[in-house]
Amino acid sequence: MSTAPNDTAAQAALAIALGPEFAALLAADATTLPPDEYLSQEEIADLRKLLLIELHHLMKSGQDAVKDLVEDRPVESDPVDVASDESDREFVLRLAGRERIMIHKLGRALERMGEGEYGVCETCGSPITYKRLKVRPVATQCVECKTHAEQVERRSRDL
User: Fold this and answer.
1) Largest interatomic CA distance in the chain
2) Is the dihedral of CA 11, 17, 20, 25 positive or negative?
3) For the segment 22-44, what is each residue's pLDDT rounded down to a tens digit?
4) What is the pLDDT of residues 98-120, one digit of tens each?
């Protein structure tokens, strides 16, 4: 069975995992999305596909990680092995936390796309370039605003 993001079963699993608020976005065809002020329909469709593929990969990775965490393991008697296993579990859980955050960002990007707000800087309202969105499809700020925000964060960290 195929697990490609456009596979009906895979999209149904994604919709269930992400919850009802994103289910309609997954079911929507890129051509049914509201027109975008700055991006063409082709660009929106291309970016939507990138978002869905990344979402699919993260969901699959999460499922595999959960499966690995809950599988029965032999009881270790060696303290070094126990510590190593525990360290591995903590690492997997940290990765899962990061993936969960990225899944939320991907869902939010799809939501913004459905609202016709995708590709607009949340800070200044300027367009986010297609080139930037291709590299970072979950971007919510234009390069200028993101650069400024990072500089402010760096300065506050240095104090």
Assistant:
1) 63
2) negative
3) 555 555 555 556 666 788 888 98
4) 888 999 999 999 999 888 889 99
Residue ranges of domains in the chain: 8-116
Which CATH number does the domain 8-116 belong to among 1.10.3470, 1.10.8, 1.20.120, 1.25.40?
1.20.120
Residue linked to tokens 């929507």? 28
Please give the DSSP secondary-structure letter assigned to residue 30.
G
CA angle 26, 110, 35 (to 5 degrees): 100
* DSSP annotation string for 64-107: HHHHHHHS--PPP-SHHHHHHHHHHHHHHHHHHHHHHHHHHHHH
- Please write the tens of the pLDDT for every residue from 137-158: 999 999 999 999 999 999 998 8
Closest-CA residue to 34 (of 103, 107, 111): 111
